[in-house]
Amino acid sequence: MSIAKNKLVENDNNEVKIVSYNDMLEDIKNTTENHLLLGNGFNSSLCVNTSYKNIFERMTQEFTDYKKINIKKLNYDIEKLINYLKNNVKNDNEEKFYHNFFEKKIKYDFMKSAYSIVKENIKNVYDIERQGVYLLLKNFSNYFTLNYDPLLYLLLMNFKKDDTTTLAFTRTDLFKQEDLNANKNEIYSKIEEAYETGKLKIFTEDSSIEYPLKNQTKTDFISNIKSFFKNEINNKIYKINDLEKACNLLWKSKKTRPKDIKFEDGFFPEYNPERELIQNLFFLHGAFHIYKDKGIIKKITASQNKSLHNKLEEIINNDKSDIICVLKGESQEKEQAINENQYLRRGFNKLSSLTGKIVIFGSSLDDNDSHILNKINDSNVETVYISSSSSAKQKTYNKAIKYFSNKEIILFDYETVSYKKV
Asked: pTM value?
């Protein structure tokens, strides 16, 4: 489609036009095939600041020697930092060791810091007033992300119609459970189990009483939980405050939440020969919950009974395993790394088979992601929606037309994004 035919690209004054977020949602609502591609700006829209700058500042808190590096000169780009340190190793005998050390050390510190940022903010994302993000996510057939963190996965799990076929990297509430100590974790797990089964069965000396849970008010829910744990409270095994806290966390996660989004990330409890057709969630550059172990692609799961960062460290320090996370500087290097990995290659090739419309949310359309953007341009997608701001719309459009010259390009204003339900 030529620019002249694109009714929403320019107005009568030849200025680039930008529509509101709600207009974009309305426009894609009745389209059969919609797809979503997320960059880091999407996290920011949820007040989860996983920018390179913020992650690096968190890294310096854990390891102060990072302060000696002029990361600002590298635009806080972790990928460029790894390459910079590698290129400054002069001794050939030490080169292989330091290249390997720098990449593993920085990758681990980067992931641990990003994880801690998501963990601290995930509770706010799960607040009921932010469940309006469902109004965005429900519209798509396929989900792609350039981000390394599991935020998109956690959000989709929050609204998943059927979670029996997907191994959980976490339950969607794992981050909240980790805010509790081991004893409180036990409380939370028991309360969650009772909620999922739909009833509590309380035994008395003469009989037993069953309380249905899912349709109760929050006040009644907490009251029945306290009755259920009456003996533990009296024996001072559990504290009332801990029970109430666990109930509040569970309530925020479970209550008034739609459960009709279908997604599969390519990991199944049993081998499924149709998995490539079923998968519709793709981490294009990998993620720090996906790893290779002796040539087999696996996913970190909650059942492994370790904190995520401890599991990350264990994997990274094992010569036979590695986190699948493409921290390469140039687009060509990234594409090569993708093509060498079966799991990543599946998502990369999926891009070129798309039809309909795609929403690109939070990507700066930088050249180091040109391999991704070119794949989209090669597809049969007709319309590309791209987040921007009014002040940057011309710059965004100039980048967009470079990659999507044969697509209809529509910019939407990310400053009008609101996830609150109306």
From this structure: 0.77
| Rounded CA separation 198/192 (Å) | 10
- Cα dihedral sign for 39, 174, 338, 352? negative
Q: How far apart, in whole angstroms, are the C-alpha atoms of residue 11 and residue 1? A: 17
Cβ atoms of 381 and 358 closer than 8 Å:
yes
Q: Give per-residue pLDDT as tens, 48-97.
A: 999 889 999 998 988 888 888 888 888 787 777 777 776 776 555 555 55
Q: Where are the alpha helices (DSSP H) in 9-150?
A: 21-28, 40-45, 52-62, 78-87, 92-125, 134-137
Q: Dump pLDDT digits (tens) for 283-314.
A: 999 998 888 888 888 887 755 445 666 777 78
Q: Give the residue among 145, 146, 130 at the shortest CA–CA distance from 79.
A: 146
C-alpha–C-alpha distance, residues 264 and 259, integer Å: 14
CB 347 within 8 A of CB 264: no
Quickly state the pLDDT bin for 349 (edges 50, 70, 90).
very high
**Tokens 């995520």 belong to residue:** 308
- Radius of gyration for the chain, computed over Cα atoms and rounded to the nearest angstrom: 24
Burial of 225 by CB count in 10 Å (0-12 exposed, 13-18 middle, 19+ buried)?
buried
Scan for tokens 């880091």, then name that residue. 40
Which of 27, 13, 125, 84 lies closest to 410 in space, CA to CA? Answer: 27
What ranges do the domains of the chain cover?
A: 1-159+258-422, 175-254
Query: Phi-psi category of 236—alpha, beta or left, where left has phi over 0 and alpha has psi -120 to 50?
Result: left
267 or 281, which is more confident: 281
Q: Note whether 6 and 408 are within 8 A (CB).
A: yes
